[in-house]
Design brief:
Helices cover 31% and strands 20% of the residues. With 521 residues, the protein is α/β, with parallel strands linked by helices.
Length: 521
């Protein structure tokens, strides 16, 4: 394989010496200095490079670049493989972005320069109605390395979901515009995928302005991720699901004055507001706070919240040695993926952080200053947040992809979707089973990052016409932040638990976060 690469490299150098030169571009020139953070890239998916002299000679008399793009799309609609492979990733969550970054590294891609983008935008801008989009190859060596990477997401920004717990207590930057990220080696298209036609390797898209478009691909990666499980509106309290929710939780925490906040989606109810005005906050009491959900999101929120409330007590000269947050867990213990001893260790750390634990209880609703549990038991509460975990995005089922009972896409040992030619799935939306152990992967950023790196290698192997590797899970690592000064990390090595707590646990948590949060601002 190395010999073939060297031969291709030498052939391309000789062609360049003979006058068949391409318009130069660099990743540095790809950064558009005049583009604001919220701008949508113009014509990113219709970039047609001016091409070399031989390509110009093949151009039909009187043909326009836009017309040629559509003609090329029509000619290659049913072609299973085109000269310049187009790899499309649906979903800009952690797994989707990490797949793009891994593909860029694996295929050694270079970004097209600004002149090429502007040429394509001028050629194709202003055309309305049905369009065929066929990106042209970037000027790099080798067929696999000539691939174009395209991200499609219905939103304009990436949501840093794993920081929602922190945003509920302290202001946090929760979103990163895809337009910023697209400057680093892939193209972004904001659109809603209406349908997938795998036989033709074609996507039907709907843009935010309502226009319809068609995009052809050679490889498709479905990375639609997961969505938070939310409480029904009648349950009261707040959900930990998006930045708007975190803002409301933080506002309620900051404005608490000793009256119960029976808040739903719109904030405090009228009765709560009236009580708040009539009853100022007692100086001797923190708000009675309840977090429902024993997963990592609930654990991290409860600990962060407790740390803030205890800090307030200390600043007021009050004792800070009692639990100030109650975590309601429907399971029998925390961390069921790990050993019982590791779970007990985590519980001790949480209690030390000011969190009381209530296992084996299912919360029903929050109303009139109380959290009602199944069986009729009630907990006094001023604030209640539901952190109910994640579920697979429903998009896959709407496209007709094969899903299991939990809505996750069924894939084989190569992360391919059976019966869908050229399609893979990765991340929270995929049901990925380690062939060696039979373990079904969880829904974490750490696992999604490992899957993305492996998938990039598999796609490269497919493009080069050689067998791809069989998937193997990375070692399971679970990390949690337990406030700004402590953390918890667990893994299992050689049949034994390895646990880090305190500052070492926090260091491990920050390290794993840094591995997945490779998102330039």
């Amino acid at each position: 394989m190395d010999a073939n690469k060297n031969m291709n490299r030498n052939m391309n150098k000789n062609m360049n010496r003979n006058g068949n030169k391409r318009q130069a571009g660099s990743a540095e020139n790809d950064v558009q200095k005049g583009e604001t953070a919220g701008d949508e890239p113009r014509g990113d998916l219709l970039r047609e490079a001016k091409g070399n002299d031989d390509e110009a000679k093949k151009r039909p008399a009187g043909g326009t670049p836009a017309g040629e793009a559509r003609a090329h799309a029509a000619a290659t609609r049913n072609s299973p493989v085109r000269e310049a492979p187009v790899i499309v990733v649906i979903g800009g969550g952690y797994a989707g972005l990490q797949t793009l970054f891994a593909l860029k590294k694996e295929l050694r891609l270079k970004a097209a320069n600004k002149a090429e983008r502007d040429s394509a935008a001028d050629a194709c801008g202003g055309h309305s109605g049905q369009r065929e989009r066929t990106p042209t190859p970037a000027p790099v060596e080798g067929r696999a390395a000539g691939a174009r990477l395209i991200l499609i997401d219905r939103h304009a920004s990436h949501l840093r979901k794993v920081l929602l717990f922190r945003g509920a207590v302290h202001p946090e930057k929760m979103q990163v515009p895809f337009a910023n990220l697209a400057r680093h080696g892939f193209e972004f298209l904001q659109a809603d995928v209406r349908s997938i036609h795998s036989a033709e390797r074609k996507l039907e898209l709907k843009r935010p302005d309502g226009s319809r478009e068609t995009l052809l691909y050679d490889r498709l990666v479905v990375a639609t991720g997961s969505v938070p499980r939310t409480a029904i509106e009648e349950r009261g309290g707040f959900d930990l699901s998006d930045p708007a929710d975190t803002d409301r939780i933080r506002a309620a925490l900051g404005a608490w004055r000793g009256a119960a906040v029976g808040a739903g989606a719109g904030g405090a109810d009228a009765a709560g507001q009236a009580r708040k005005a009539a009853a100022p906050e007692p100086e001797h009491r923190s708000p009675r706070s309840v977090v429902v959900g024993g997963g990592l999101s609930g654990i991290e929120l409860a600990a962060e919240w407790a740390d803030e409330l205890l800090r307030r007590r200390r600043d007021s000269g009050l004792a800070a040695d009692t639990p100030v947050v109650t975590l309601v867990n429907a399971g029998e213990r925390l961390l069921p993926q790990a050993s019982a001893e590791a779970g007990a260790r985590l519980e001790r750390e949480l209690r030390a952080a000011g969190v009381a634990l209530l296992h084996g209880r299912r919360a029903v609703r929050f109303m009139d200053g109380q959290v009602e549990l199944e069986g009729g038991e009630r907990l006094p509460a001023d604030l209640c947040v539901w952190a109910l975990g994640l579920q697979a995005s429903p998009a896959a089922a709407s496209w007709g992809l094969p899903v299991d009972e939990a809505g996750r896409i069924v894939v084989d040992a190569s992360l391919r979707i059976g019966g869908w030619d050229g399609c893979h799935a990765v991340g929270d939306c995929a049901r990925i089973v380690d062939p060696a152990t039979g373990r079904i992967e969880g829904m974490s950023c750490r696992e999604g990052t490992s899957q993305a790196k492996w998938l990039a290698k598999a796609i490269r192997a497919e493009l080069e016409g050689r067998p791809g590797p069989v998937y193997r899970s990375a070692p399971l690592v679970l990390c949690a932040s337990l406030g700004p000064n402590r953390g918890f990390a667990w893994t299992r090595l050689h049949g034994r638990d390895l646990v880090l707590t305190g500052s070492l646990g926090l260091l491990a948590r920050r390290y794993t976060w840094k591995l997945v949060d490779l998102l330039p601002d």
